[in-house]
Amino acid sequence: MIQAVKEIVAAIPEGMVATYGDVAALAGEPTHARQVGKILGAIGMESEIPCHRVVNSEGRPAPHWLEQRLLLQREGVTFRRNGNVDMKRHRWHPECE
Questions:
Q1: What is the 3-state secondary structure (H, E, C) of 14-82?
Q2: Looking at 51, 54, 55, 62, which residue is catalytic?
Q3: Per-residue pLDDT tens digits for 28-58
Q4: Is the pTM here over 0.85, yes or no?
Q5: Cβ distance 13 to 92 under 8 Å?
Q6: Which of 11, 20, 46, 92 has the smallest set of CB atoms within 10 Å of its CB?
Q7: Could you confirm whether 96 is annotated as catalytic?
Q8: Confidence class for position 1, pLDDT limits 50, 70, 90
């Protein structure tokens, strides 16, 4: 599953986000969203894989990673008043590509 997660996250376009659940489903393991989070945490923030493009199901960035919001904003991702990503505008739908 690790390689699948890396490949899926690497495919998320700039300015778009996916949820942990989206990545898990695309990897063929729809009930393993937490495992996706653990994999991405192990990969690390300094990786070439754009882990910052993965948020929770509500669009909330990781609470312990303050730079995630800044990285997303640099890519044009907008946030709602509650601090969550505007998922209607920025959620990645790979089946539409």
A1: CCCEEEHHHHHHHCCCCCCHHHHHHHHHHHCCCCCCCHHHEECCCCCCCCCCCHHHHHHHHCCCCECCC
A2: 51
A3: 999 999 999 999 989 876 778 999 999 999 9
A4: yes
A5: yes
A6: 46
A7: no
A8: very high
